[in-house]
């Protein structure tokens, strides 16, 4: 067993027996605890008895497909979701990220790459957001980095861990344009390749949840050719 990795608890949802066995064996050889679920419609029940740190989720599943599960899981699971699919077009990946996945790999996936993706997702989840000890307040918006709670007026806004992480990054540098390259390096520890849309999708979800105008955003602005800007003056009305 390789002891260089933490003992993560992984739930693998995959109906291809041969592939599932290969993934389970490889992850276990890297010190991870893995349980296998072969149907989509039994995943939520499995979460009651097994509390994983991360879910590896195939898209094409019997019972309930992976994309539908991505939309349902945030009500039951706060950890990262990594989608796996033989569907590898940009459109397929954007759709997967849009419904809530934190990452997307195309099958057949190299096992070493899969381990690296898992470690990266879980390392980011365990990292402290900032050393700041105070909340950020902008008009009706309040962001608490310790409780990881958001309030807009009298309403508590439900964000995923990655959405909160992105909002905190933008809000802690309010009024400044943050480039995609900077955001990718800070949050994902990778370079922006000009095609990846993970951050764009998360920005879109943040805008929707925070009452921004989707067509002409005024709270989290797109500065074309430069990046994104959190507008500190735009939060007076919830």
TrEMBL record:
Alphabetically ordered keywords of this record: Cytoplasm, DNA-binding, Phosphoprotein, Transcription, Transcription regulation, Two-component regulatory system
Organism of derivation: Shewanella gelidii
Residues annotated with 4-aspartylphosphate modification: 58
Gene3D superfamilies tied to this protein: 3.40.50.2300, 6.10.250.690, Winged helix-like DNA-binding domain superfamily/Winged helix DNA-binding domain
Response regulatory domain: residues covered: 9-122
SUPFAM superfamilies: C-terminal effector domain of the bipartite response regulators, CheY-like
GO biological process terms on file: regulation of DNA-templated transcription
Domain OmpR/PhoB-type: 133-232
Gene behind this protein: rstA
Protein name according to UniProt: DNA-binding response regulator
A Pfam family of this chain: Response_reg
Residues of the DNA-binding region: 133-232
């Amino acid at each position: 067993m390789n002891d260089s990795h933490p003992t993560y608890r992984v739930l693998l949802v995959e109906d291809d027996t041969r592939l599932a066995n290969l993934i389970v064996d490889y992850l276990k050889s890297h010190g991870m605890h893995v349980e296998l679920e072969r149907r989509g419609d039994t995943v939520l029940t499995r979460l009651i008895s097994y509390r994983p740190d991360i879910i590896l989720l195939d898209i094409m599943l019997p019972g309930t497909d992976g994309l539908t599960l991505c939309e349902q899981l945030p009500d039951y699971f706060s950890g990262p979701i990594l989608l796996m699919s033989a569907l590898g077009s940009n459109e397929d990946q954007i759709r997967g990220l849009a419904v809530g996945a934190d990452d997307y790999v195309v099958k057949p996936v190299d096992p070493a790459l899969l381990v690296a993706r898992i470690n990266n997702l879980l390392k980011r989840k365990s990292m402290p957001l900032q050393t700041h000890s105070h909340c950020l307040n902008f008009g009706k918006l309040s962001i608490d980095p310790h409780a990881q709670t958001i309030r807009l007026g009298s309403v508590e806004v439900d964000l995923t861990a990655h959405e909160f992480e992105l909002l905190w990054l933008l809000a802690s540098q309010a009024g400044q344009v943050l480039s995609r390259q900077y955001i990718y390096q800070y949050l994902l520890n990778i370079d922006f390749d000009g095609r990846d849309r993970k951050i764009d999708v998360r920005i879109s979800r943040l805008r929707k949840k925070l009452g921004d105008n989707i067509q002409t955003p005024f709270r989290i602005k797109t500065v074309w050719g430069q990046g994104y800007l959190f507008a500190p003056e735009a939060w007076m009305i919830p």
